[in-house]
Fold each of these.
Amino acid sequence: MFGMPTPNTLLDVIQAAPAGRTAILLPEAGIHVTYESLRNQVRSMADALASLGIQKGDRISTVLPNGLPAIVSFLAASIAGTAAPLNPGYREEEFRFYLEDTNAKLVLCPADGAGEARRAAAALGIPARSLEMDAAGVVRIVDAPGGKTASAPSPDDVALVLHTSGSTGRPKRVPILHRNIAASVCNIVAHYSLTRKDTALCVMPLFHVHGLVASTLSTLYSGGTVVAPAKFNPLSFWRTVRDAHVTWYSAVPTIHSLLLSRAGEERPAGAEGLRFIRSCSAALPPEMMEKMERVFGAPVLEAYGMTEASHQMASNPQPPAVRKPGSVGPGTGIKISIMDEAGNHLPSDTRGEVVIQGPNVVSGYENNPEANAKSFTNGWFRTGDQGFLDADGYLVLTGRIKELINRGGEKIGPREIDEVLLSHPAVGEAVAFGVPHPTWGEEVAAAVVLKEPAAEADILAFCKQRLADFKCPKKLYIINTIPRTATGKIQRGEVARALTA
Ligand code: AMP
């Protein structure tokens, strides 16, 4: 790829570009960070982490908004140990779970804020350190000691650990190796022909593979520029696209939909510089794709990604190849097949479970033999998604076997919400489920049966204290009995249909 050696680790990924080019642009502060500066900052922070006692395999949790500190600390943590980025919106109890479950050795936070994460770390006896950034765009760990040098990672070291929500039980830990991410980055760069001329606007959170791998690491490997605002802002989005000469962005349909509502029928200034728009992490309705292409005037390429595949599995191709609305395209550097429950591969146009195989796919969940036994069949990873391959090998997703609520791309395990509701003293039974929502795709709702009187507002406030805002039910049905199937089972989909009909 452009004469650069194939990367095996994240250290290789950031070595590919010439020193003086802009790696990262922080649009709010107007700060340009060169590749030389990025490499130096990552090295220095990896050494600081080693000097703080971090060794290979040690988990470093980060609780940061998008921006340079999130990118530098992610890379440094994956080199000195293993990066474990967390959603800064979690509540103290959620931080406690994730910090304990990942066995975090250190927590990195912004100099101010992150109170809930700091309290959770203190309760568990885990040290928390602050990050600071100066006006020149250099990030450091405040008062970090020196003296040690972090050794280079090997391809089989775990670079990143993330959680995915399970249908049953607690969230599962996904250990992603350096070589898994490096393979994913190569697939993405090749598929979209990313080069040094490209500038990506990263509006997806950096604590997920979508923002990290697709927008950020792929761009860094191609030697392009990542524009990294602190968060998605529909008011300044197109101004940033225009001023920074953005050539592509990747986002969830919720973000595309907000941008479309603001644009009306008028092409926003700046959109003429876009080579393509990528959509991933939730289904893109064909009408939305058609409207985006018409109003924004750029090809819209829907892709399919998941944490266990270090993000991308499939994507529609660039023109002149055909992009099909309602399909996520053919596999990108990965094998995709459709399997029945018994493990037989199914012919094209036949629905079944989407299974995958490839160098970007993790080899198993951490410390979870039960989930591994269920998720792998004859070397194929079962995605929990349902779909079929058409005659051209394009994948069409038709549903989900796994129980997840997909709220604007953010995956929520409904059991986690059931458990919080059931811990309320007045709640006897609880079932959380997703309901269709015009902007979020799906929104969280729940049904409860009370064993003693309680007000809806009181139960919702109880949830708010224990669950990040995106997970809190927005609608609560207080009912006498939970609807069951003919065989007496509770099925979330059935409950949702019965209550929202
Ligand atoms: P995550 O691990 O958070 O990236 O979530 C992965 C899941 O997101 C997949 O297993 C799918 O259920 C869903 N997903 C990703 N991309 C799409 C898409 N283009 N259309 C529908 N669902 C998607």
Note: The longest strand covers residues 427-437.
Amino acid sequence: MSAPRLGIARPLLAWYDGAKRDLPWRRAPSPYKTLVSELMLQQTTVATVVPYFERFLARFPDVAALAAANEDDVTAAWSGLGYYRRARHLHAAARAVVERHGGALPADEETLRALPGLGPYTAAAVASIAFGARTFALDGNGARVTARLFGVRASIDRPATREALRARGLAEVPAARAGDFNQAVMELGATVCAPRAPGCAACPLARKCVAHAAGEAARLPVRSPRRGKRLVRVACFALVDGAGRVLLVRRQAGLLAGTWALPTVELEEDAPGEDAARGVVRELGVTAGRLVARGEVRHIFTHRDVTAEVFRAQAAARRVRDGQGARRWLAPDAFATVGISTFTRKALRLALD
Ligand code: SF4
């Protein structure tokens, strides 16, 4: 893919100067704000992230405050934003910055890459936006925009295509304003070069864009065929004590690791949820009253479509057998103090209503 530069920096930056949105991480920017916003924005829209970002910054105003926080406080502040691994990565990165770099985020892309949870995209984004490094940060959004701009017909899901797009994107990055260039590509992808209906008529790069010239903008980028979502059935069990507190367990693994959830078990095909819920009660070693079926909740994750049968029972005694992982009884008005996923919130609502 040895092709000439398109020379997009000048029109792109001129457009960005007039069109960029006023976002909280762009006001009085700092490396810490850049890091938090970049992690929050992965797989999540700007509109969703803004209130979370503002609350998170109010709670953890700098790297030192985040590093000193406990895991529950961090996951609580992230609750509802999904992809909880990002919260754990951010927390671990803040601790590493304090331990290894005296509390100051390193400016160098390679050193940023060595922080826990920072992949090539995040390290490049922070290095360029916060420190002006001449690098190109390529995420899914940038891959779509550059595949169209350069007219690339190979699948953007292939690592070789991504690497080629990154190299061609890097060739376009100006020595000055590298951070603005990267943000401008992201902004263009979010507001003009949209996934389904690219707004070529309003695009500052229309005269440079290979896909637009070829009339292929809406057909690019090419994606590899995806496997469908896995259908999963689970049973969740709300055990409630005499004071209305609910037994929650901390998830140890998977997408929701670190969050607090109802005891949950995956169901074999066609297995009755009630039997499984009884099994959970036995495993917990609790004495519980009659099991009441409360109905079902459904939640779509990236790769899974989960239907949960929700059960509730009164606990006769609060003693719970020791097992793997943390367990705690929590009153509903304390749910906001720990990290609870949207999926668990739905199940709790159904169980407790
Ligand atoms: Fe995207 Fe169209 Fe602009 Fe090309 S001209 S970058 S396809 S919006």
Note: Residues 145, 148-149, 192-193, 198-200, 203, 205-206, 209, 211-212, 217 surround iron/sulfur cluster (CB under 6 Å).
Amino acid sequence: MNSRVARQGIAFVLSAPSGTGKTTLAVEILERVQSLTRTISCTTRSPRQGERDGVDYTFVDQNRFFEARDAGEFLEWARVHDNYYGTPRSEIERIHGVGSDALMVIDVQGGEQVRERLEDAVMIFVLPPSPEALRQRLEGRDGADSVAGSTVNLRLRNATEEISRFLGYDYLVINDSLAEAVEELQAIVVAERCRRTCRQEMGQDILDSFRASLGDSI
Ligand code: 5GP
């Protein structure tokens, strides 16, 4: 398939309740799709083991975060689980500037702000197939990735609240089978890149070349 990327950058938003697998989905889709780059958010939370400053997140203290927020540096920001997170506008500019499309993996509060501020943003919501499936994921089969029992019910309540906001999104992906969910995400990105509005200039160039070639032959 023609792998040329739309000249006008697209901003994708990927939101999902905690435990739905959006981080895994994001990693998979970023590996498979060319010219798609994840925005690096600012956060006030501490780095987890293995996380690198400026790669996974830009880690800042609360003062710096509020300074940036008050200076209007964030396209969106939210408080999530007692920490602040925000997407710097400069991230979208950086990514679009190198001809890539941007992928924001952010919560629903942030998603709603992006929808208001970037009307062309493509909003994707990932849903768990059922409360049982989410509970199982949160509890973790082997315990390695599990969430403490006392917080599972809280996360399920939060998930219900988040899921109730899916109407603000353009696409719904049900993460039942990871492989299918990744395929659906990939299909969404490809379809969005084929939109006439994204390919307007390409279409015009082709039309111009047809007109020019007719002119030559006359
Ligand atoms: P974590 O601390 O586990 O990396 O992320 C916690 C939550 O914050 C996740 O739902 C994640 O998607 C969300 N998040 C990460 N970066 C941003 C951001 O820049 N803005 C918003 N609104 N949410 C974010």
Note: Residues 11-217 form a domain with the Rossmann fold fold (CATH 3.40.50.300).
Amino acid sequence: MPRDNVVIVGFMGAGKSVCGRLLARRLGRCFVETDDMIVSRDGRSIPEIFRQDGEDSFRRLEGEVLEELALKSGDVIATGGGTPCRDGRMEALRELGTVVWLRGALPDLLARARRLGGRPMLERAPEEIEALYRAREPYYARAHVTIDTAGLGVDQVVGRIVAALRQTHAARV
Ligand code: S3P
């Protein structure tokens, strides 16, 4: 039974946080971020977790937080770029409500993510990052709704999400 959350997925720099926060305000819903849940559970920043314990450990924390999301209903949830990209994760997210993929062109995503900083996955070589993006696309593509964000501002992206949610009858708008 879908639990009426709106779950935002996409690569680093896709605008999941900024669009999710605005979407939540517009819909009068609570906004949560899986990365914030990890940080408040663990007590360390994400770069610290990566540096001290490695990526596998971070992915384990991500899995634990995903289980916690099962308690949520009616929220807007922004996930980390890698959250949906393991077997079974997209299925789990789809059970929470409507999953929205914010799709963008890789150079734009990287420029935005680099500007914001604090992303250990971007310390890799450019060809590794490109391979990561290609490997992740099939996971994101399993979202209920895809929004092409190229050339759009935050307001426009949120407008398109709201319109798509109306169509899927998933939002109380
Ligand atoms: C990651 C993305 C980050 C964060 C962590 C790992 C990834 O979230 O979860 O640094 O593997 O793509 P954003 O997508 O919000 O940057």
Note: The CA atoms of residues 18 and 154 lie 7 Å apart.
